[in-house]
């Protein structure tokens, strides 16, 4: 393999792009450097793989020993890292202020719902870290900015545990794609592959001896874009925001540490999420309200920045007065990717969840289990695509009435519907508890399997359907770990995976 030493001047970044099946080893031999805000260890090799596109930045200058070939590599002095650092310092000041002024919140047993969105928040905003939402077009660097800010918070050494909210279902973050999740981070997370860009979650219990394994709270959307079904997406977004509020009100450390919200590119499409052509950026408005965002970061798009300023004026005054809109420069190292690339990464994320990182024998390996389930014991629902005619196509005076969740239960008596399950990624969900304050309409679901409340159920696991035997009425699935499944209720959408 080709080995070389690259010197990077101070306040510069070394940009890399790997091609399919390429792997690169980097070792810091002199100076200090960081990758997405996570500091590189001196004299320790780091293997980069899986078509990673990244930038290694240095504040003081450094030398890197590089082994292997890359598709593109060059040094640039045009970098947004100084802006990122200034943002971090502002957020750090608020974190310190919040920690020094906050008091423990004790919910009233008579009014357990009073802390949920739609109610006045008794927790003073000054006792909370900033809730920061990042928006931008496709491949603008939203996830890179979010992760850099997370890692900077971890590097302060003050014990912060900021929560990362992933609203981009095309990239599951620490989970397989098709999910919306909220995850607390207490340590820096290194990026060596886009497959695990935000770390790995705990998938096999004791089989995965990794103290850094993450435990996200997640909901299943089962599609890659909010445009597939904006109504279901908004229901899930609000449900996740409610869970986040309850977590923060009972976790003083997380509350003062703040929240970073990564969003999909679909948020920048003005007409997604609303049937009213005059209502623009409905998904952004919904997220700003549900998560009570304090800071909105707009990456590298002047028009979008102006549109957000106009949007702010149309919001409720109580919400708009607390939101600061800031424009962040787009990094010249942001690389445009295509659908084929994203499909490869999504397939690799699913495989990594079940098998671990198979491309590196030094990484922790998992042992998924194949098991057979009787069809009659499993309840599977499909989150359908939102396909409706425009309002202008309705008869004069008519109004549209839509089912909010658009869940369809799979008919196991239909062979054609059974076949649609083969190779599908199943998202196991736990039925809402009748005592769950997150869902005031929750009840026991005996005989009520079509309830719309299923869409708000917690995600508790994943399965891959590998085979179906109609004659024996059994389904063979791949599970990440042996033992009893956490649920026999599942939803699925457009994600599939097949071992090749």
TrEMBL record:
Primary localisation category: nucleus
Upper classification of the organism: Eukaryota, Fungi, Dikarya, Basidiomycota, Wallemiomycotina
Pfam families in the record: Clp1 (PF06807), CLP1_N (PF16573), CLP1_P (PF16575)
Parts of the chain that traverse the membrane: none
One cellular component term from this protein's GO annotations in UniProt: mRNA cleavage factor complex
Segments forming domain Clp1 C-terminal: 366-499
Protein name per UniProt: Polynucleotide 5'-hydroxyl-kinase GRC3
GO MF assignments: ATP binding; polynucleotide 5'-hydroxyl-kinase activity
Keyword ATP-binding among record annotations: yes
Assembly and interaction partners: Component of a pre-mRNA cleavage factor complex. Interacts directly with PCF11.
Binding-site list for ATP: 13, 53, 139-144
Protein function: Required for endonucleolytic cleavage during polyadenylation-dependent pre-mRNA 3'-end formation.
Family: Belongs to the Clp1 family. Clp1 subfamily.
PANTHER family found in the cross-reference section: CLEAVAGE/POLYADENYLATION FACTOR IA SUBUNIT CLP1P (PTHR12755), POLYRIBONUCLEOTIDE 5'-HYDROXYL-KINASE CLP1 (PTHR12755:SF6)
Domain Clp1 N-terminal per the UniProt entry, residue ranges: 8-98
Keywords from the UniProt entry: ATP-binding, mRNA processing, Nucleotide-binding, Nucleus
Organism per entry: Wallemia ichthyophaga (strain EXF-994 / CBS 113033)
Region (Disordered): 100-119
Domain called Clp1 P-loop: residue spans: 136-356
Keyword ATP-binding in record: yes
